[in-house]
Amino acid sequence: MAQKQTPIREQTRAVIRSLLARTAIELFAAQGYDNTTLGEVAATAGVSRRTLFNYFSSKEDLALGGLSEQGELIAERFAQRPADEDCWASLRAAFQAIEEIETTPEHRLEIVTLLFGNESLRAGHAEKQARWQDLLAPLIEPRLPDSDHRALQARAIAAAAITCLQAANQEWARLGGRADLFGLYDTAVQAIRRPA
C-alpha cells in the first residue's frame, strides 16, 4: 500500500516540480520548444533525467503540467462563489486564480507566448482546457434554470468562457503583456454575450 506523503514532503515535491518547470520554460523560450531536449532541461536544472521523469511524464507535460493544477484551482474557486451569483461573474472571479500563481509578468509572457507559438503545445493546451470544461460544467449546471438541455447549456457556457480566456491570453501576448488580461477577457465575453 502506498504511503501517504507528509505535508512537508508534498511541499518539497511542489517546489521541485515548479523549479523544473521554470527551468524548462526558460530553455524553451531561449532555444525553442522543439530544439530543447529533456536531457538539456535536466542538466540545466542539475538533476538526472530519471529525477526529471519522477516529476513529469513527458516534454509536453513539462511545458503544460501546470494547466491541470490551474483547472482544479479554478473549479474550486468557482464552487466557493455564491450559488445565486451570475455564472459568468463566478467564472470571471474563478479565472482570476490564474493571477495568483507566483510568477513575474515577464515569465508569464514567456509561457503564454510559448504555448500559442508552438503547434503541438497549442493542441496540448486545448486538451488541458477541455478538462477545465469537464470540471466546470457540473458546477454551472445546478445554477441554470431547469430544462432538458441544462447539461448542454452548462457545457456551452464553460466552453465559451474558456475560449474567451484563451482569446484574451493570445491578445495579451500579442500586446507584449502591456494590457490588463481581465479587461481583454471582459471584451471577449461582451462580444459573445451581446444581445442580438
How would you describe this protein?
This protein is mainly α and 196 residues long. The chain has helices at residues 7-31, 38-45, 49-55, 59-80, 87-95, 105-117, 119-140, 150-174, 181-193. α1 (7-31) packs across α6 (105-117) and α4 crosses α5. The protein starts with 6 loop residues before the first helix and ends with a helix.
Tell me the overall shape.
globular
Number of strands: 0
User: What is the H-and-E element order?
Assistant: HHHHHHHHH
Fraction of residues in H or I helices: over 70%
Largest sheet: none
Rg, Å, rounded: 18 Å
Multimeric organization: single chain
Q: Work out the strand percent.
A: under 5%
Distance between the termini: 58 Å
Uncertain stretches: none
Number of helices: 9
Average residue-wise pLDDT: 87
Structural class: mainly alpha
